[in-house]
Amino acid sequence: CGSNEKIHNVAGVRLSAVSAGIRYQDKLDLVLIELSEQTTVVGAFTQNAFCAAPVVIAKSHLSSHDPRVFVINTGNANAGTGDIGQKHALESCQIVAKHAGVAIQQVLPFSTGVIGEELPIDKLIAGVPKALLCLDEGAWEDAAIGILTTDTRPKLVSKQIELAGSLLTITGMAKGSGMIRPNMATMLSYVFTDALVEKELLDEIIVQLLDKSFNRITVDGDTSTNDAAMLVATGKSGVSISELDNAKRKEFIIALESVFQQLAIELVKDAEGATKFITVNVSGGKEEDECLKVAYCVSESLLVK
Question: 74, 169, 186, 234: which is the annotated catalytic residue?
């Protein structure tokens, strides 16, 4: 267990990271994130036709229930594992739900790591009780380390802004260094705020944020089976974004956007084999899609690389 006081805590969020030995011994590889009641959660997932088992289960649970716990394992992606993979993803939700006292559908599973191998579910199950005991509102750095695979460093971004006489907090983490290409990639991203945001508005906001961050980066031109980007609003600050005037609401969205963009930039900077970070700006196109095609043509050219 551990805490990090350098990052702003988000009221209504507790985290933990423990070593379950899923692939390596003595490596933080099992992360739990507990959300308070009345928290709003939206997310975006890989558009790969061959979704990993946890993506299938997470999307299903998110569509029908308000999530209370994220369970994340590294070392094994539980992808390309067929029916047994879905069984294991559900079992991970089951054990967390049992010990946390929530419904199975209120648990969202996420996995990242080696593809095509069965998830060692017994190790994950054994690690859950310890992870629940370690839950701490300040364990951001442990959690950010616990979601890494081939990354060389954790990616954590945190900021606060004053709106409506209150201080709002936004803190996020991400992982990913290979198979990075829109839409999203082998990446997991979790951004949290204590603002009060209705689900419909949060759904609109995350689309805008992804289009200007994770959906605008590329490393190797490959997509993935496991990527997910989650946006969480606990509402604990009491500041309702929908009740703000347009200028203040835009200020909040810009603050969120800066966190998403910084996390996306950190992914590229820590990409496998990367020595350069390049931004491609295209202007003069008839429409945005035309400019994007030109940008990707340049950025994914082997000659340019």
Answer: 186
